[in-house]
Predict the structure.
Amino acid sequence: MKDRALRFWFENWRSLRNKKPVFLLLGICLFAFFFHGFVTAEVKPPGAGDPFPDLIFKDTLSKEQRLYLGIPKKKSLSFRMFQGELFLLEIFNTFCTSCPRNVPIFNDIYLKSKKDPSLKGKIRVISIAIGNTSKEVELYRKEQKVLYPILTDYEFAAHKALGTPRVPFTIIVEKDTQGKYTVAYSHQGVHENIDEIMCKIRDLLKQPPSRQ
Amino acid sequence: MMRWKSRFSLAIFSALCAFLCSTAVYGISEQFKGKIYHPGKLKPVDSVSKLKVGDNAPDFILPSILGEKISLSQYRQKKNVVISFVPAAWTPVCSDQWPGYNIAKSIFDKHDAILLGITVDNIPTLYAWTGEMGAVWFPVLSDFWPHGAVAEKYGVLRSSGVSERALFIIDKRGIIRYIDIHDINERPRLEVLVRELEKLEK
């Protein structure tokens, strides 16, 4: 058994010497090993005009939340499934002590997006909790009285796809008639009031060149 | 031979994907930008356990950042106690873990439990650090001097002089009901603690 293992490693070592792609993979592995755990700051958070990646979630949403987002009951959710023209996204986590300050503003916009005729059906308010479990999100929702849907990103996959922004981070995503998703606005930090963000939403809905 | 080589390459590639996909990101709240020291990946556990579930919890008296002295025995017959040892102020995982307990206060209240946060940092450091968090609802205690004496008593003092990332649940009789000497590089999941608190009533 020991001989067989030794022979396996020896034979593979000999073959590795002639295999550049394998060496490249090993190099990447070593790089990843040394930098694992150091990925702690922003890479490049998205800004206006940047393409918005598709994001996948495994949350089980309530019937009300599914109706709001216009999606069927599924085990896996894709951002591309959500109905609407604009998406107001809040990236946060439950450990962030400044993040709750955004909740009343996002709750307000969420209620407007359901009741205001000029916004109804056009904008969806969604939150993504990075690094959080569903239990943590449940407690945060209850504690902070969050009304809008919160999706969990426990493995930080969505966070990485979005350039690992610090939290809270706000993005407005615009969907054009070709089904292309683009970042129309981004904001780092807490919002002082609802005005700036509502102004931006109304502007985007009034003059949507890509959607005309 | 070719089959072995392709399997070998596939194994390396799969390991790489799993490794990169599992990279957790801690301490990224806006308020900590530029203020967090990243120690890199550390040995998961670097101490020898001295206590086990069912033991009497060693008593201690430590100063809190509010200037009072807090002892474990003051909660005897009154409150269940959760002790959260975290390694150090101004580090990524710890800076997430304690604010994370802010949303769980109702859970602690429901189980008649108090949380005591302990590190080996001194009072001024802890005061500044927890101030940056906004506020935490539980007593924050300094095990600075004699350095790490309580951590040592609980078997969670690492060879570098900081404590492990450890959780102890102690019931109203002073008996240890749960111990989690956690991987120092990772944040303990809140639901596990909640589940253990629920067991206290059984």
